[in-house]
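[User] I wish I could look at a protein chain and see how it folds. I have put the entry right below:
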Amino acid sequence: MTVERTRAGVTTVVGTDVPAAPAPATTAPAPGEAPAAIATPATPATETTATPTTPPAANADTDGDTPTAASETPAPGERRANTAPVTVTITVDLGEPVTVRRSNIAIEGEGNGDKYLREDLGKFQPMPGAVFDHALYEASKARITRRLAERGYFDADFASRQVSVTRAEHAADIDLVWTSGQRYDMGPMSIVQAPRHIIRDSLIQRLVYWDEGSYYHQGKLDRFRESLARLDYFAGIDIEPQPQDAVDGQVPVKVTLTPAKRSIYTAGLSYGTDSGAGVRFGVERRYINDRGHKLLGQVDWAAKRKTATVQYRIPAFAWLDGWYTVSAQHYDEQTDYIDTRKIELVGSRSGQVNDRLNAVASLHALRERWAYVSEPDDGNGALAPVVYNYATFLYPSLRGEYIDADNRLFPRDAVGLTLELRGGLNGLGSDASFLQAWGMGRWYRGLGERNRLILRGEAGYTFTNGLVDMPPSLRFFAGGDRSIRGYAFREVGPTLVTDTGKKYALGAKNVLTGTVEFEHYFNEEWGAAAFVDSGDAFDDDRPDFHTGVGIGLRWRSPVGPVRLDIAHGLYDPDSQYEIYLNIGADL
């Protein structure tokens, strides 16, 4: 037979073959009456739906002659070939639910004074007066048991574990008591690196921020694991407390580390609306010695932008976990709006303040060359040699990044904020004195299951009297896929048009841009977007806002979000439409 679940408390059995001879425990119906529905005592009547009549059997005699053997009286337990199946409905009344009448939830022993455990006891579900939900009860019980182990009560056990149900009164009494035993302390830590030893144990020990003999807490081990993972030296990290080997109440901790591959090689194709098609090659040595130093080399070679970078990193643990970094970069950009080339040396110290906030303090040495004009020769109109400007700057900077997101790849509830402050003095390694502040904020919010609202804002301001001496890399620009769509990269802002029609973006002292974007997804992968961008890069105190509007296609691909946008600038753009392609995480 087939069983179907219908309304709460009702189970319908469909397609049961009822034999011609009655079963021993039932009473046959009178001639001409339908079989009665079978119901449990004291239950309400329910409607029974008859199934369609089965067509006559194929071997029945349709001429009215003597029936064939197939139409004779069947053996007990069999159905006549030409009779219809009968639907039998069984109705079950759930009755009044069982509620919690009394609840005794407690921890005896040292854990009784632990305020965090007492908070968990106060949140135990189901509470008195609530319907007794067994799954909720088990989850609450498991949470407290797990919390006892996390806080070092390794000897904890149940003193009482009972739920008494009085069916006549529809009541349940919960009696659940743990004995915590003593709270253990952090003991000595042993480190095993297998199959080979790659990093000094003393370096790993510097990541341990607790003192031996302090209270045990699983959170300390979790933070230690995260710090090891950020170093990117190991493919496997196993941190195991060993309470069975505790001595004088101190639990030893065994750390087993499996080294990762020493070298990472990268190669691929790239495309950017602003940079054009290109290739990328890189190699990173995760560890070049047992002190954990790292080395990175990378080349990005695109049609309009070329970058070569060498970076050397040393792990840092004083104050904040992070890195000391020394890097050198050669950068060359030849676009429709700028011609620049620079060499930059940077020394920095980065650190993670907490799970959401990272900070970097750095010192920059910059040498940059750039050109803005190509004038026609007075003789025959041919272009004269390009005249370049040069600048040298030495300046410190401080940068902070805060990200609070449910999912960095595709956030639906997230806030991101980046702030940067930098400045230099004329005569102290810089060709001009300046102080510059810049910030960007991003906000993501899911609206229903398939919609998302995105807000973005950017603001920057420069205090200087020597803007003409500052190179493009220290000025602000606007326009492009991460600024104001509808305009080309660096199109918005002060420009210089030569006699040849060549337009150069000069860059500006200040910038102010913003975005409002709405996305709707048709399914788990594909969606569409509509957006408005506006802003300006400007030298005085009043921006001349340039606005762009557009639509886009969204694809949540296996390699990350893909965004394809088409936008139109409303303020005299150089092109009626701009197309942008962007691949990568939102945050």
